[in-house]
């Protein structure tokens, strides 16, 4: 902002201008003040770097993103008051201890006109005033986010999750500038560990460390998206944050070669459970598609826990009770591990096969007593690793599938 000396009256200013044009030395000007007595004045303040001034940013007339701070600075002066308003609402701010810098502490809004009024005094106590008006841009759209434990359940602020829990950020609109989107999201942990991002679709990105979280880790996510340009005139709507804690390291490994599921807690084996997983084969649906039965191999995590869950073959097109693959049952003690309907659950009808062969339609069948223990102990984010079924899970099959993505293919933190 240009600095300028404001004379007492327009007439005085005109007189000063005429005299300055006639002098050989423009740095000193003789003029008659309002009383007619002789006086002296210096050239305009922009030629004097030591002149007391108040400056305002954003610059007057500017159009800025609403994440720009309002900053008022006093040079060779001190600030007394600063007000920033729009539509009768005041923007909060703080003055530093030296009373030379005022900075806004609350966010601006989109598509508004803001007025800034600042007052201060120079070293001699002479009053200084400055005003400015600027606007914030009006986007074609804004994108909000939600933090998810999985696509069906939000992350709970202050919650406790398993060592396999990933941070899932879901955008309400597709951010075409994905680099800018990720740069605005910071994940910190205690103890600190490196993490990376992976876009599972155009609007959903997952974050995880290279290996499972350590027990007791505190994870915090701060998304400073308000006013961030996400591409194609779409801007981040609001800032969001969340924190959660990692609980005990409960890990289950279901091995198709042995038909047993080995369970460890904090590295110590506590169970070795006989299981029966998805059998070989498939069913053809009415539209000609195939629904495969083998349980998907890969890293899953517990995504929900239900005392009872109705399971029906109608979900994949088998509605004829005479079909050998037809079923419609209320199943007990269910821990979901995939979006398509794979669960670890009680299956008293297949105890004869557990530990020997696969007879289910994709779930991990276990005896009722083992299912009760599993249900009582396992929580959201606890890993269930399936091995050796010959059918790998895809990235969209479960909230844990991102653990199977090669570390080198993930995007490092900005």
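-> sequence recovered:
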């Amino acid at each position: 902002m240009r600095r300028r000396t404001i004379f007492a009256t327009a007439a005085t200013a005109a007189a000063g201008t005429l005299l300055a044009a006639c002098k050989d030395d423009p740095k000193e000007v003789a003029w008659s003040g309002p009383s007619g007595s002789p006086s002296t004045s210096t050239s305009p303040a922009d030629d004097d770097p030591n002149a007391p001034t108040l400056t305002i940013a954003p610059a007057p007339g500017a159009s800025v993103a609403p994440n720009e701070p309002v900053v008022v600075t006093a040079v060779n002066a001190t600030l007394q008051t600063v007000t920033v308003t729009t539509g009768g609402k005041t923007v909060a701010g703080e003055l530093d201890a030296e009373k030379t810098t005022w900075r806004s502490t609350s966010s601006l809004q989109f598509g508004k006109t803001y007025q800034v009024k600042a007052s201060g005094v120079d070293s001699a106590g002479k009053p200084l005033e400055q005003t400015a008006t600027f606007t914030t841009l009006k986007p074609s759209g804004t994108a909000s986010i939600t933090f998810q434990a999985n696509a069906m359940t939000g992350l709970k602020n202050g919650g406790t999750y398993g060592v396999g829990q990933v941070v899932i950020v879901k955008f309400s609109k597709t951010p075409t500038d994905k680099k800018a989107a990720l740069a605005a999201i910071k994940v910190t942990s205690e103890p600190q560990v490196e993490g990376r991002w992976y876009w599972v679709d155009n609007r959903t990105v997952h974050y995880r460390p290279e290996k499972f979280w350590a027990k007791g880790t505190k994870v915090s996510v701060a998304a400073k998206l308000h006013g961030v340009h996400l591409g194609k005139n779409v801007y981040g709507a609001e800032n969001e944050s969340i924190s959660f804690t990692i609980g005990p390291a409960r890990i289950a490994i279901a091995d198709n070669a042995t038909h047993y599921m080995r369970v460890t807690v904090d590295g110590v084996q506590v169970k070795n459970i006989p299981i029966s997983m998805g059998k070989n084969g498939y069913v053809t649906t009415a539209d000609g598609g195939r629904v495969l039965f083998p349980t998907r191999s890969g890293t899953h995590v517990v995504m929900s826990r239900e005392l009872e869950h109705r399971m029906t073959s109608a979900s994949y097109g088998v509605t004829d009770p005479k079909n050998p693959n037809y079923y419609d049952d209320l199943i007990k003690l269910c821990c979901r591990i995939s979006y398509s309907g794979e669960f670890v659950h009680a299956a008293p009808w297949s105890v004869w096969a557990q530990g020997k062969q696969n007879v289910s339609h994709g779930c991990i069948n276990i005896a009722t007593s083992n299912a009760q223990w599993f249900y009582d102990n396992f929580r959201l984010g606890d890993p269930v690793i399936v091995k050796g079924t010959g059918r790998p899970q895809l990235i969209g099959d479960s909230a844990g599938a991102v653990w199977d993505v090669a570390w080198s293919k993930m995007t490092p933190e900005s």
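The first helix runs from residue 10 to 22.
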